[in-house]
Structure to design on (427 residues):
């Protein structure tokens, strides 16, 4: 029967799409679990690092590291943007870019110039089209980002800070709250902002440094910033998978709705055709 | 019982060791250091090598690290171990590479976004041609 051929074809194609989105959902779910595990594994390091730097900020070193000292006039700022490499992950990147753009517009109005360090293909293509000044980039980090892949890009920004090309450094990335919620966030990396000291550390003290303060502190602060960026990248990877999982789930659900609607239309059309045929036969028989 | 202190050894990718210790040996940049409880606060870089921990039950366990930082507070010792191989030249090279990638991006005309733009233009052109054809056939 030739009834509703187009509808049948359409249902078939939607079913195929649904199969794909469902598979992507499952893949994202398993990748998300792994990414979350990595995120948890990297937390102790970031935490310890933060503790050490907090201690340091309240010590009274003979050498004050430039990363700890606030600069009065801010003419240029640097932003490290952490985005995903691939799309199809809901509004994750868009939300981040929107928040960042609002902030960038404000800086622009204040006459502050902006340098960007793009991590992830999406931020690279977005800011290329938008016309941001990208000074370094790192893409295709994969599902298991390694700190070694980030060292170069971060160093470009740190060097710019050392040379006075930028006066502040920010990190824009997504914060993993839970599977359903990811918040875009912009945090200040440099100069380092530290919490209030613990009571026992309030007296006057300082570390012994080996070999000497400047060398040790340089190393430490570089690692500190890298660890924060790495944490951002790992967290973003978990966010990406979670957002993709949710997006693909709703796509599969929508496909299901569409299929059932089309099935209804198809059934109605088929029934109408049969009724019409019967009535034709009956009226034909009556005419004889 | 001897005085003990807390030891944490972490790397960016995992937590390696956490527990109480009586004594700790670490390969500091200026030579190996042995640390007991109530050591004065100290901050130093570590070379790649073995960290030995004498635990409270008298046993010794050891961990290999590929360099990092050592922080000593009187009752807490933290080792921040590196996962990547670090050297000044290597870092410099990585930074240059990241910069070059960004510069290449600005020169390279055949990237993703331009394709998208080209596609949009192409679609527009096709639509125009079709409109012209329609108008011609009407005449």
């Amino acid at each position: 029967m030739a009834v509703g051929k187009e509808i049948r074809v359409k249902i078939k194609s939607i079913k195929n799409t649904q199969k794909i989105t469902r598979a992507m959902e499952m893949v994202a779910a398993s990748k998300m679990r792994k990414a979350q595990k990595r995120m948890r594994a990297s937390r102790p390091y970031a935490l310890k690092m933060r503790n050490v730097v907090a201690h340091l900020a309240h010590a009274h070193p003979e050498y004050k590291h430039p990363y700890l000292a606030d600069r009065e006039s801010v003419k240029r700022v640097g932003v490290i943007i952490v985005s995903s490499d691939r799309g199809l992950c809901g509004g994750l990147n868009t939300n981040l870019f929107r928040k960042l753009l609002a902030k960038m517009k404000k800086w622009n109005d204040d006459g502050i110039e902006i340098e960007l360090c793009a991590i992830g293909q999406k931020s690279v293509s977005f800011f290329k089209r938008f016309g941001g000044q990208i000074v370094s980039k790192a893409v295709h980090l994969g599902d298991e980002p390694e700190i070694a892949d980030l060292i170069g890009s971060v160093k470009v920004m740190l060097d710019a800070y050392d040379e006075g090309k930028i006066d502040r450094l920010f990190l824009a990335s997504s914060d993993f709250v839970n599977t359903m919620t990811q918040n875009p966030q912009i945090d200040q990396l440099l100069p380092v902002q530290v919490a209030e000291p613990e009571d026992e550390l309030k007296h006057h003290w300082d570390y012994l440094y080996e070999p000497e303060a400047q060398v040790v502190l340089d190393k430490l602060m570089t690692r500190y910033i890298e660890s924060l960026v790495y944490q951002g990248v790992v967290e973003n990877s978990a966010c990406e998978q979670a957002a993709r999982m949710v997006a693909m789930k709703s796509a599969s659900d929508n496909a299901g709705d569409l299929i059932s609607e089309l099935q209804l239309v198809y059934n109605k059309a088929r029934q109408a055709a049969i009724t019409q045929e019967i009535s034709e036969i009956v009226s034909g028989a009556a005419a004889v | 019982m001897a005085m003990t202190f807390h030891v944490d050894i972490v790397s960016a990718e995992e937590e390696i060791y956490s527990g109480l210790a009586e004594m700790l040996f670490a390969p500091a940049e200026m030579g190996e250091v042995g640390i007991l409880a109530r050591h004065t606060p100290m901050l130093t870089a570590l070379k790649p090598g073995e960290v030995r921990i004498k635990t409270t039950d008298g046993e010794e366990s050891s961990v290999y690290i590929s360099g990092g930082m050592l922080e000593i507070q009187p009752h807490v010792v933290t080792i921040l171990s590196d996962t990547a191989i670090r050297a000044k030249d290597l870092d410099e090279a990585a930074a240059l590479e990241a910069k070059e990638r960004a510069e290449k991006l600005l020169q390279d005309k055949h990237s993703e976004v331009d394709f998208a733009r080209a596609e949009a233009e192409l679609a527009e052109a096709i639509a125009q041609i079709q409109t012209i054809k329609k108008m011609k056939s009407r005449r």
